[in-house]
Every structure is written in C-alpha cells, then in structure tokens.
Amino acid sequence: MEKYNNNTIDKTSNIYRKIMKNYEHIGYCRNDWEKIAAIMIKRKETIAVAESVTAGLLQFCLSLATNASKFFQGGITAFNLGQKARHLLVEPIQAETDNCVSEFTAAAMALEVCRMFSSQWGIGVTGYASPVPESRNAIFCYYAIVKNQCLIKKGKISFGKKIKDLLPQQYYTEAICTQLLRILHK
Question: Which site in 19, 97, 128, 155 is 20 to 30 Å from 103, CA atoms measured?
Fold first, then answer.
C-alpha cells in the first residue's frame, strides 16, 4: 500500500485549490455551454466526447448545461495507448510513433466516440498538460470535431507561458468550446 506524506498531500491540495479557484472561470464559460446545448437541443442533435489530456473536463462542462441529458450522450477518458487502442480503436502502431498525440489520434478518438455513444457529433482531444521530453517540453493538444462520421475541424492548441490563472486542461477546454460554437453557428 502506498504511503502518503505531507508533501504529497500538500501538492495534491494545492492542485485541487487551483482547480476550484478556476471553477469560476469554467462557470463564466457556462454561457457558451448553454448556447451549445440550446443549438443541439433545437436541432435534435447529440454529442459525445473522447478525452485524454483534458481528463474529463469537457464532459464535466457539457454536463453543466441545462437539460444536458437531451444532447450530451456521454464520454470516455483514456490516457494511454493501450486504453485508446482498446476502447477507441486508435491504431496502435501509428499512435505509438507520436505517443498518441496527433491530429490522427484526435480524429480517430472523435469518430469512435460517436459510434460508441450513438451521437451525431464527437470531440476527440489528446495532448500534453506539462512539459515532457516526448513533446520537446512544449505544452499543447490536438483536437478534432466530427459530425455524422465526417471530420469538420481539427487543430492544435498551444499553451503558452504567458497564459496565467488557467491550467492547460482548462485552456484547451475553453478553446475547443469556442471552436464548436463557431461551427454550430455556421
């Protein structure tokens, strides 16, 4: 059994406090989630989410919208290659070449989550929330948005050092929300 020391508990508490402090920011973005909900409900369309780097935050935000169950089918969080290959049918040989962080992987995740949850829309996101050698110490993610099994939008979101008061996961979530809303308004 793993033993926790005060440093581990303090570090975890500090991360939790930062997330909760920024909950207000997520609440501020709630207007966007409400707009997404209203559009999808009016059109009788649904969405599902496959996440890695955002660790369920997109699902959480979608669930905040009024009448979420009328448009949000659910989601899955898969962090590593094994789980992405098993649950989201990400092709493992291709994904291994880029540590599962690519537009290809994000698109595969978005397409499969639509099938899994029987939704018209899907979002896939994968990336890095902290500097690691595999990313050349850069912090970024790739995302994809699909509708009816067709890729609508894909891209890369970089998290710069100048961004204050947000965790990378929150920044990515907000940026993806903005992209989805733009697409829905077209």
Answer: 19
